Structure formats: C-alpha cells, structure tokens
Amino acid sequence: MDVISTKSMLSSLLQRYQKQGKTIGFVPTMGALHEGHLSLVAKSTSICDVTVVSIFVNPTQFNDKNDLANYPRCIEKDCALLEKTGCKIVFTPSVEEMYPEEDTRQFSFGNLDKVMEGEHRPGHFNGVAQIVSKLFDVVKPNMAFFGLKDFQQVAIIKEMVKQLDLNIEIIACPIIRENDGLAKSSRNQLLDPKHRVIAPKIHQTLATAISKTNSCTPNEICRWIENEIDSTNVLQTEYVQIVDYETLEPIKSFGAQKAIICVAVWAGKIRLIDNQEINPKINKIKSKRG
Ligand code: PAF
Is 203 a catalytic residue? Predict the structure, then answer.
C-alpha cells in the first residue's frame, strides 16, 4: 500500500494503473476510520481493481471552529487499518496541497442543500463539494463510495457529478451500526459515557417510528420522535424531518413515494445524525400479499 501526500505523485501513480486499463475505486474520508469506512473500502475492493482512500480533514466544510479543532486525527492508526483491507493507495494531503489558494467556488444545489444539514450548517455542503470535486479531479475514479449515514451528502454528490458532467458512478452504501444500533461515526469516540449509553435511543426511536406510518402523518411522527428523544433529558434534537428520498422536499402524507426520516441530535457537545428509510406503501401492501 502506497501512502502519498502530493497530487502530482498520486496522479502519476494512478496514470500507470489507468494505462493498464484498471478500474479505480475511490473512498474519500476525513480519517478516524471505523467499520463504516472499512465497509466502503471492502465494497470498492470487491468491484474495482485499484482502491484509493483519501484522508483529509477538510477545513472548508466545518462551520464550527471547535468541531474542526476537535475532529479526531489518527493517520498512523488509519493506515494500519487500511493495510489489512486491500486498499492500494492512501492519499493524505496537507491543507496547502489541497488549497494552495482560497477556493471561492460557490455551488448551487437547489433545494438539496437548503434543508436539514444545509439549513443548520451553513456553507457545509459547499465545502464538501469543493473538496470532493478537487479530489475527483486528481483521482479520476470510475466509482466513488459514500455511506448513507450522510444521506444528504450522497444526494448532493450525485447532483454535483451531474452538474460537472463527470463520468463517475456514485455508489451509496448502507449505514453500519454498533451492536446497540448507534450509527458508526468518527464522532462517537468523542461521546462521554453518559451520552454514549443513551445515544442508541436515536436509532431505536426512528425504527419504532416506521410502525406509525400507517396511522400518523409525517408531521405527527416528527413531533413524536422529537418528544421521545428530548424526553431523555440527555439528548436534544436539532431537527427531525421526513422528506422525499429524491428531492429532499418535506412530505405531507405517506403515499407511493419513497421517503426518509432524517435527524440531527445533540449528545452534549457532540452532534450526531441518523436516518431511516420509509418505503412506499405500495410495496408494503404487495409484500403483505406475498
Ligand atoms: O463524509 C466525509 O467524511 C466528508 O464529508 C468527505 C466526503 C470525505 C469530504 O470531506
């Protein structure tokens, strides 16, 4: 496994693989790798000839300086984990390497970056689009792998690929959870014991909410989720929204469209996100009938 920190060295190494007709799979990360990331790497190595993982804590996507300062960084441990995966190249650039000058590009994703994370973390998705487009430009992957815990990020990356007319297939991979249901996240290691013990309540509540979609409106379910989580007196919801799976527009009733419940929850000073798909009623009826 090669660990490379400059764009020029990465490009020349990748060109050699590309000339040999090898397919390139790319997993962009901010490090502090966990099984969620490793599942993306496993997916990539299973379908691509060469897997590249980037580790870069991207300053332009943090709207909170403390969050950026406290974000866990452990490159050596990450590389040791990646050694065992079949990953061929780890790209670990510096901030100067990725931003030799300020990136002033402003992306526009319509509704996709206005709601939920976009509303509560101004500038976040613009920063994500800046770095992912720069990384795509150097790696030129055939496929790129993203986890569905960051559901809205996946929607935005797909839209960015469309807008920039890039020939990259975006592969969305399922959320990986701890045994108690908490979605795996690099931020989980920052939770203190009091918050860690109650954090699985987030997933439990979303899973239970699914059984209410036959009898309640989306709005009623959102209020119920808020109440369940906030009444722990330890967790505090920032938002709970049920939106259309494609457009991310809030939905008013459950019908034939696929939807998703998305939440952001404060566990002390740590902000956690999670989501739960709601499949169209039509499928439920079909599956009941067999
Ligand atoms: O999901 C992440 O870890 C980051 O947003 C990403 C895609 C690596 C861009 O910095």
Answer: no
Closest atom of ligand 1 to 157 CA is 7
Contact criterion met (CB below 8 Å) for 143 and 26: yes
Cα–Cα–Cα angle for 257, 258, 261, rounded to 5 degrees: 125
Q: How far apart are CA 227 and CA 229, in angstroms?
A: 6
Q: How confident is the model over 183-206, as pLDDT tens digits?
A: 999 999 999 999 999 999 999 999
For the stretch 157-172, pLDDT in tens is: 999 999 999 999 999 9
Contact 171, 143 (CB under 8 A): yes
pLDDT of residue 290 exceeding 50: no
At residue 282, the pLDDT reads: 56
pTM of the model: 0.95
List alpha helices for the chain, DSSP H: 7-19, 35-47, 65-70, 75-83, 95-98, 117-120, 124-139, 151-163, 193-198, 201-210, 218-230, 281-289
> Per the structure block, which two tokens stand in for 204?
């439990």
Spot the catalytic one: 37, 124, 195, 203: 37
Mutate to test the pocket of ligand 1, among 33, 34, 37, 58 (most ligand atoms within 8 A of CB): 58
Residue 58 beta carbon below 6 angstroms from any ligand 1 atom:
yes
150 lines ligand 1 (CB under 6 A): yes
Instruction: Output DSSP code: residue 27.
Output: E
* Rounded CA Rg of the chain: 20
Instruction: Among 30, 95, 113, say which to mutate for ligand 1: greatest number of ligand atoms within 8 Å of CB.
Output: 30
